Amino acid sequence: MGVLVTLSHLSKTFDSGLQALANVDLQIGDGEFVSLVGPSGCGKSTALRLIAGLTKPTAGTISFPAGKPEMGFVFQEPTLMPWATALSNARLPLDLKGVARGEANGRARAALEETGLRGFEAAYPRELSGGMKMRVSIARAFVGRPKLLLMDEPFAALDEMTRAELNDDFLKLWKAAGLTVVFVTHSVAEAAYLSTRVAVMSPRPGRIVADIALGRAPTPDPSRRFSPELAADARRISDALHGAMKAAA
To answer: What's the alpha-carbon Rg for the chain, to the nearest Å?
Structure first.
């Protein structure tokens, strides 16, 4: 497995003087599902934005050993255009790239189908549930067939049942598409269920204090949520997180 992204001694201080990240070192391998877990304000979202190039580091480097990959970004809120249909929202990245409308529509329809929204192409955001809006957001990020998908707490606002369903559906998409995912979550259980690795961050300024390999490819199996193996993984993540917070205190 090759290295897709390397963060080396990465730090970020905002103009206000707030230091979000300090000396972060992390490698993301091709095909991995890596979750970032840490207390609120520890710089998890900032790390994603740095990888995406939406903001620049104060110090350190972000490198792409095999060349900068095509990326998609899924935010915590769906941020859909309310006046546009699900198809038009999913098609937006292709429109911005100047892809011919016929091809763009076909690719957007395929992305909506892959995210479980076949038959909802003409629906407007006001007609969709919260989970369906997030599916459109994922389809929009996926329509350009990115190699690297960055996800900033995309399921945090959803009810437990919808969140679990989206977890499983997204794992199927990750496996089928050969994606590499960097996923921000506050949920230890979600990180344990979804990830191949979990990077635990300290309170601000955020550092990587534990890099936990979970040792097996995650599978979309609801019964796995109650398995002893998953409980043990969640305990390892939780212990590392509590240790980081205790050390900071």
So the answer is: 18
